[in-house]
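ping. complex inputs:
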Amino acid sequence: MPDNAKTQCLIGVDLGGTKILAGIFDTSFNCLGQVKISTKAHRGPDEVINRIARCVKDTVDECDLSMSQVRGVGIGAPGAVDTQEGRVIFAPNLGWENLQLKKSLEKQLEVPVFVENDCKLHTLGVFEAELKAKPKHLLGIFLGTGIGAGIIIDGKPYTGINGTAGEVGHMVIDINGPECGCGNKGCFEALASRRAIFRNIQAAVKKGQKTLLTEMLGDDLADLRSGDLRKAIRRGDKFVEKIIDQAAEYTGIAVGNLMNIFNPEVIVIGGGVVEQLEHEMLPIIEKVARKNALPGTSKGVQIMATRLGDDAGITGGAVLVMRQTK
Amino acid sequence: MPDNAKTQCLIGVDLGGTKILAGIFDTSFNCLGQVKISTKAHRGPDEVINRIARCVKDTVDECDLSMSQVRGVGIGAPGAVDTQEGRVIFAPNLGWENLQLKKSLEKQLEVPVFVENDCKLHTLGVFEAELKAKPKHLLGIFLGTGIGAGIIIDGKPYTGINGTAGEVGHMVIDINGPECGCGNKGCFEALASRRAIFRNIQAAVKKGQKTLLTEMLGDDLADLRSGDLRKAIRRGDKFVEKIIDQAAEYTGIAVGNLMNIFNPEVIVIGGGVVEQLEHEMLPIIEKVARKNALPGTSKGVQIMATRLGDDAGITGGAVLVMRQTK
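pong. complex structure:
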């Protein structure tokens, strides 16, 4: 472990609907260790906050460090965040509304805590720790249970006037498409998120569709994960392949739209779905996006998958602490 | 005329598919005079460039000024522009490709010429000359023959990596919608631009649809203008009203998407279609946009029509000269 890590550690936390991942970093954003525990959102916000604090302390302990060596904690929450107050405005996957996450955690951890939307933090992590040649304008698009994005303009996170910019998952691309959780029809998220993909598969299976997935997981597909889709496709399941092709095509249209709107230097695509199905999805996403965007907005724009995977969020959390405590 | 105008005049030019409008401004962006002539794009680029130069000189002469008192000319072109070189990359409504507009005009006018995309210039004009309380982040959306936008972030024009950001007209919102000139289906522009509206009306009339428009203009509707639609609606034409309601609803969905993506402080809507049909369209646009956007991205965001009308482009041209020659 480098010397400065002993006095200046940064902690990043990725808070998801199913798991909490905490990582400890030195000031060059090298990960020194990480701990993952389940979120248990059904136990209520107080219990989840206790678990986040425990996960942070366990990570520090794993690395034989103490909280006094921690400069701060940066945490990404799956929803809308008031970054000034460190308040989670709304996080549907956790069932949270208007929660003072910063205050509660600072009381327990006695170090500064910074809260940001998870996709914005993922993007910050990719920008700072993965991309060597810093792009001027970067768009990070993340496909998980939901779909969100982070925007970096002129090397700085762009968050809009309420801090809520980047809700690309609720860009309508098929006005007559399936209903979205937000109440609209045909949002990007209602067409290509993990939830949308699973819903399409489960609906087809209920109608008698044959698939290797039921052999692997049983008829109810209760434990279905993105990785299972990859396994089924690689074992020749044409039905699952078609579902994933379709999601990739919708994603390509959304990425083409965003290329036309932003004309960024780099578009990074990540999230659990893409991490598991990059090989299957990315070529289709890129092909459709470039076909759909105007030549002038697509030319020279790089489209790539993040290599950070699950670590993007915790890395971004560490970057946030670094930027906020400079 | 203020004194400094005699030594420091700024000229803005709005180059459209059908007309060239030039305006002369003092350094406080007060318009001192303007001249409008037709574009005659069919006569070819050389002739159009001659006409732009003539229009600029006529405007100067109208105000009893001379070109030696002109600090520069800012011109908005309907298409993709390389602002560094002042080159029009592609302007489909003029039939232009790869045209050195800056160089050619500077030779004729002997003052500095700056070229920008027309919608970006409209937005700059609104930002600088219309909005007293400067919004931090502004989106200008303009519905004319086509649809385009200008983006201002942190008070500065955002143009992307190739200078082509803001192509919101080619955001797909109805994946199965009508074909767009760009080759995609269901672009915003293919659903709500003047061209889309006229196409829908003419197709329905061909199929026998009754409308006051044919009484006003004859069966071929050859001289149809946006203002005629307003007149027909105000005289009770339910068919035209429905067509315009539909275009406004599509626009509302597009604006909702952009609110989710940008969460700007202000969204200004303009262009020939909205200038003529503001009363009919704006309430629908705003209602649908706010219904479609997430509460967190819509809250506090102001949606308004520009009061500058046709003058937005020339005002923006003057602002561009001011910014480039500071």
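Chain B is about 45% helix and 20% strand.
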